[in-house]
């Protein structure tokens, strides 16, 4: 596989996606997107009320992110995306648009047509106890810690043939970044 032009940092809420993704993008000089910034107001309100999102809530959000990524990658811009991307189908939408999940995406089909998106998935993985401990300390975020259980229930960890690495959230942030940088050098 060619060197990745896009990197997805995924995992349940509180696994460190935003923290790791932002630092990594700055270290690599790549553009950074935090999927949390792209939720429509209804999704934020729903999560704020303690109700987990469902496929219907997530699909338009993921499709929009796919369009953004594809546009950047097609123009030669390298990107890091922090996004929970809990299910395999969600990751397929991010890389291939809704078509990849047997659905239909608008923008992406018109623009940057067959641009191959070489994506490396970084799964930040950890125990419920460690991650909930971090979420309980995190302040000023719309995602309530009570939703963590449903995030674990929904999670489909990446598996072959996805191009992925899994890193434990028990490592500190510098160790996580170093591991990703090392993987990228080998690609
Ligand atoms: N590897 C880590 N070790 C210790 N604390 C971490 C680590 N990664 C993230 N954190 C802290 O955990 C909390 C959740 O991280 P955050 O990046 O917001 O996760 P996410 O974007 O996946 O929801 C934050 O307070 C962050 O500072
Ligand atoms: O920082 C966080 O707490 C998470 O990133 C969180 O915001 C959430 O995981 C998604 O943005 C919601 O969407 P999902 O229900 O699809 O994870």
Automatic annotation (TrEMBL):
Keywords: ATP-binding, Kinase, Nucleotide-binding, Transferase. GO terms for molecular function: ATP binding; gluconokinase activity. One of its GO terms (cellular component) is cytoplasm. Its EC number is 2.7.1.12. GO terms for biological process: carbohydrate metabolic process. The keyword Kinase applies. It catalyses: D-gluconate + ATP = 6-phospho-D-gluconate + ADP + H(+). It is an enzyme of class 2 (transferase). Pathway: Carbohydrate acid metabolism; D-gluconate degradation. NCBIfam families: therm_gnt_kin. Belongs to the gluconokinase GntK/GntV family. This is Gluconokinase.
